[in-house]
């Protein structure tokens, strides 16, 4: 493999990605896969079902193609001042997100660290050696005046190395903060900078510079530990076993840290472009002749460090160095610890009848699993809901303003337009679904809300109950759902049910139930246009199928009532001609609508046929 890799020099980010995947990520994946088979090791390091190295963006990420395309379209028609994420050409940093797979039966996974890479011709090992030191980045780099032209070559090189290194590190640190991560790393293929955040002091970033090639040469007895694979593996196991990673979402901690930390608007590529070739290079004659440069540019090999594995925790002398990103401030972590500990017990979802009754101001559903929380000490037999729909929404907004952690749990499910959450209104125990989306797709969810309004007569029977929506931007909040996935709009619905493929014990064929729901939807003048198995759920409460996801649905003109009873008999003849014109003029629309209805039914038949074929039925 070494000979094969040597034929492909690292010329750009894509080549480096290929190199890392083949030579480092694959071996680490394979080793972790074997370690998880050892029960004691798997449990000790919280390995779960192994690790996933993912370099493709989430469908809702601001780097995903469809999101970028939509944002670009919106920007072209907008006259508003763009925010910090609007420069779409700069939103594709080269990163790999590392996740733990939590379960073999579900797609659930949790991010444990982010890996960002820069090719070695853009960020050299020498620049990292000179650029990394304990410092206050804001004071010593960001606020530093323009470099004087009279500066000697060594000082000039150090100046540019610190600025370039700090910008690269800050970019990784930024995504660590947004993702609520304790660990992250920056690599050039030749050198690795391992990073750590203590969330009790998130303004301080710890680092460790590793140069595996030089370390292997200096420590021939510890090749397995010093190699890139060995160091990545150790770092991965540390991240998997991180107490910080197991603490939860920490949305409020992330928000608090983001609000307090200073920002650096100049990015890595623009800094690199502003540097001359001499400023970038460590091979100029004036630098080579400098004895100080020769001493400082030697590879880091950590001579004298005892690399014998220890069972005890790391001793203070081994602690990584720090990069202070701002002046030390009061920790943001303490304020949310209590709310983390007091997070609600996650119960069952409220029934359709319960939430429909709340929305309509009717009686509570005695069969709702959360009825005791709704009624407090009252008898639920003939009791109305404790709040009306408007008050319910007001309380929910107030709860979200206070915390995006308490009562909100991401479900690691969703589609191309939204991510799903389980939400509980803590004041009265109402538990339901939220569909959150990013700025680019808010219009899609607003359209879906309009469809649910049309489908109000069949809510709770053929489609979920629509409970309203809240824009988090109105409270200056973002839910950091996944890497670069910024949820700012939340729609609330009753729980539709479980996946069709988990409900094959029905006496009546599920296809018939799905057809019933689709026809009921058609009666209200709605064409779904995206009928697939994932958009149909089995609901045990109604013993039928609920249709979901109406972002692409077509709203037809509502059917008109017969005019015969409304028009006086003496004017019937006058109106007849007008009515005929309406019918004639609308015939093509009705034909297209009928075609849309037929297509929905046809797509449902195909979906069930394919599902039955997979099951061998």
Architecture overview:
It is a single chain. The protein is α+β, with helices and mostly antiparallel strands. It is built from 22 helices and 20 strands. The strands form five sheets. It has an eight-stranded mixed sheet, with helices on both faces. Helix 5 crosses helix 7 (153-179) and helix 21 runs antiparallel to helix 22 (569-615). The longest helix has 47 residues, at 569-615. The chain is elongated, with a radius of gyration of 30 Å. 36% of the residues are buried.
Main traits of this protein?
617 residues, alpha+beta, Phosphorylase Kinase, domain 1, Transferase(Phosphotransferase), domain 1, 3 domains, eight-stranded mixed beta sheet, five-stranded antiparallel beta sheet, 22 helices, 20 strands, 41% helix, 16% strand, elongated, ATP binding, Protein kinase domain-containing protein, protein kinase activity, Kinase-like_dom_sf, Meiotic_Drive_Suppr_Kinase
